[in-house]
Design goal:
This is NarX-like N-terminal domain-containing protein. This protein is an all-alpha fold. The chain has one domain. Helices cover 80% and strands 0% of the residues. It is built from nine helices and no strands. 42% of the residues are buried.
């Protein structure tokens, strides 16, 4: 991977996913709305992952900053989506997201406390489901295969962070068959959606090139997601899932630009 690509990928991730900005572009199209609504799903999962990383002192300064910026970005994008859909059933669903988001936001903003981690995840699951419903409503309004691809690609971002947060919770000592099962399902869902994206006739050569990078990184994640010598390897999983997030964000934006 070239130094230029690494720099550009890191910049895109910081600008689009991590850093709040007062000059965020307004939503100007349905595909853009689907992309941003889909990113809300990812942020619900990323907040749990980074919260757990802070609790375990995994790249603490960086993880704390990522947690803070994910909260700010969720607020910012929720407001943008509300402005884009001022009336109708989608607006009602966005209000539901807002209601569910507030208790999650309060926990995430407070000092990290292991006793609050599972409660945070429970709220995140509610926010995820409600945010996903917004995406589906927007996709149905769009009514094209391209809208579906933006949704599917965007959902891969969420799955990367879902795998991360489930792994982090387990490495933090939360032993649950539910977490183990959800982690396996997330892996399988990511793999299945990746195959669907690979087979799309709408893919540009640039999209296919990036999907190839995702395949390679995901294969590495699959090999390393088990315990190493009976121990969890959260830092390695964090790095791998963050790479998947970076590339899938690039791909989602590329699908959006096909409009």
């Amino acid at each position: 991977m070239s130094k230029l690509y690494k720099f550009l990928s890191s910049f895109i991730l910081l600008f689009c996913l991590l850093l709040p900005t007062n000059s965020s572009a307004e939503i100007s199209s349905l595909s853009s709305a689907i992309n941003k609504a889909g990113r809300q799903r990812m942020l619900s999962q990323r907040i749990v992952a980074t919260y757990s990383q802070v609790g375990q002192q995994i790249q603490t300064k960086k993880s704390r900053k990522q947690l803070k910026n994910a909260i700010i970005l969720f607020d910012q994008q929720l407001n943008e989506l509300k402005k884009y859909q001022p009336i109708g059933s989608i607006n009602k669903q966005l209000k539901k997201v807002d209601v569910l988001w507030q208790p999650m936001r309060l926990i995430a903003l407070a000092p990290v406390n292991r006793s609050k981690a599972e409660e945070l995840r429970e709220h995140a699951e509610d926010v995820l489901r409600a945010s996903h419903r917004v995406v589906i409503m927007l996709q149905d309004k769009y009514g094209s295969r391209l809208g579906e691809l933006v949704n599917i690609s965007g959902r891969q971002r969420m799955l990367s962070q879902r795998m991360s947060n489930l792994y982090m919770l387990q490495s933090w000592g939360f032993s649950s068959s539910e977490y183990t099962g959800d982690y396996s399902r997330a892996l399988n869902e990511f793999k299945g959606a990746l195959s669907e994206l690979n087979n799309s006739s709408l893919n540009s050569s640039q999209i296919n090139k990036k999907l190839n990078k995702v395949r390679k990184e995901f294969a590495m994640l699959e090999r390393s997601n088990h315990k190493a010598n009976g121990e969890y390897i959260p830092l390695m999983i964090k790095m791998s899932t963050d790479k998947l997030l970076i590339i899938m964000n690039d791909i989602t934006m590329l699908y959006e630009q096909l409009e």
